[in-house]
């Protein structure tokens, strides 16, 4: 593992997205915003590596560069406990750097441990703001 300046350990094990991770990112990219089509194209080539225990991922992609207007053009959230529809929420932010998918950031509002990981999430529980 490599320790970056931000303090999070980066895994160097690159892999394909799991089905749930892909579904979730496709849902995030279903929204129309500048650069979304290019990001959808990049997703087809995506390889990811775990950043932290919360489920955050870094991307390795190819394809057309996305002309996004902000670093986090799309995000969503889910509630950690099934059947509970209130905070704390698990937030999922899609970061784009230099026109490429860069990071899927996952964190819980109150900083407590995440009980429902992205791999076990029922995608119907995911909300887009």
What layout of secondary structure does this protein have?
Blueprint: H1 19-30, H2 36-43, E1 47-50, E2 57-60, E3 74-79, E4 89-97, E5 100-108
Antiparallel strand pairs: 1-2, 2-5, 3-4, 4-5
Model description:
It is a single chain. The protein has 129 residues and is α+β, with helices and mostly antiparallel strands. The protein has two helices and five strands, in the order ααβββββ. A five-stranded antiparallel beta sheet has the order 1-2-5-4-3, covered by helices on one side. Strand 1 and strand 2 form a beta hairpin. Helix 1 (19-30) packs antiparallel against helix 2 (36-43). The radius of gyration is 14 Å and the shape is globular. The model is unreliable at 1-9 (pLDDT under 50).
> How much β-strand is present in the residues?
15-25%
Q: Can you give the mean pLDDT?
A: 89
Kindly report the spatial arrangement of strands forming the biggest sheet.
Answer: 1-2-5-4-3
Radius of gyration: 14 Å
Task: Give the tally of β-strands.
Answer: 5
Portion of residues within helices = 10-25%
Series of secondary-structure elements, N-terminal to C-terminal? HHEEEEE
Largest sheet: 5 strands, antiparallel
Overall shape: globular
Which class of secondary structure composition applies to the elements? Answer: alpha+beta
Features:
129 residues; alpha+beta; 5 strands; disordered N terminus
């Amino acid at each position: 593992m490599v320790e970056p300046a931000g303090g999070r350990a980066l895994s160097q094990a690159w892999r394909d997205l799991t089905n749930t991770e892909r579904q979730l990112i496709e849902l995030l990219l279903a929204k129309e915003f500048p650069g979304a089509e290019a990001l959808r194209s990049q997703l087809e080539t995506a390889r990811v590596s775990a950043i932290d225990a919360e489920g955050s991922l870094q991307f390795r992609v190819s394809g057309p560069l996305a002309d996004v207007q902000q670093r986090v053009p799309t995000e969503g959230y889910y509630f950690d406990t099934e059947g509970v529809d209130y905070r704390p929420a698990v937030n999922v932010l899609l970061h784009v750097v230099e026109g490429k998918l860069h990071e899927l950031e996952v964190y819980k509002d109150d900083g407590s441990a995440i009980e429902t990981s992205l791999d076990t999430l029922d995608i119907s529980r995911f909300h887009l703001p």
